[in-house]
Write a structure and sequence with these properties.
Jann2411-like fold, single chain, alpha+beta, two-stranded antiparallel ribbon, two-stranded antiparallel sheet, 199 residues
Length: 199
């Protein structure tokens, strides 16, 4: 987990680290491709092992599933369907039928299932590998689409980011996918500009 300084386990967070700050599961998954608004997007799911790591860090399972190249390809296709559907919700536009079909297909698979320990002190997740995790991602997006929060989907105000997020602020004026990343970056840029221009 990240601390308030954007560190993981006592070290500065790296570009390849997954982002879960203030994000729904489905949009945290969309953020596994970073810098969407640039000419060189940054891929965080480069190997099947990365998908297994995301599965654990997201809380979808406690043991990294064994993932194949086919699983990774399926995950990336689902991710882009989630991204495009999130953007459609933000734009109040109909999503692409092929994206909805892909999301529904992923959601139809069995999900990971929680199992409470005998002393009720811990939970272990069991499921059908990466397929179960991706089903949870797809179902989260479906749940969002069926909720009142569907009208609160926004696209991050950082032009380089492009990640969807759900604005749950009371005023409905949130601009960034996360204040710890894009929001903090915007504040730094504003501060630097003011410092250079003087009072």
């Amino acid at each position: 987990m990240d601390d308030k300084g954007g560190r993981r386990g006592g070290r500065q967070r790296a570009k390849a680290d997954f982002r879960f700050d203030d994000a729904r599961l489905c949009f945290a998954f969309a953020a596994t491709l970073a810098d969407r608004g640039t000419d060189t997007p940054f891929e965080r799911l480069t190997r099947p092992e990365d998908l297994g790591r995301w599965s654990v860090e997201s809380g979808c399972t406690t043991v990294a599933p064994v993932c194949t190249e086919a699983d990774l390809d399926h995950a990336r296709r689902l991710r882009e369907a989630v991204q495009r559907t999130g953007r459609a919700l933000a734009d109040e536009a109909p999503p692409a039928r092929e994206d909805i079909a892909l999301i529904n297909s992923a959601a139809a698979e069995p999900t990971s299932v929680p199992e409470l320990s005998a002393d009720a002190a811990s939970v272990h997740w069991h499921g059908d590998g990466a397929t179960g995790v991706l089903s949870m991602v797809a179902r989260d997006l479906i749940e969002l689409c069926h909720s009142e929060h569907r009208t609160r989907v926004r696209i991050c105000g950082n032009p380089a980011c492009g990640t969807p997020f759900v604005d749950t602020s009371r005023a409905g004026a949130r601009r960034w996918c996360s204040m710890k990343t894009c929001g903090a970056l915007a504040k730094k840029r504003t501060y630097r500009a003011r410092s250079q221009n003087g009072p």
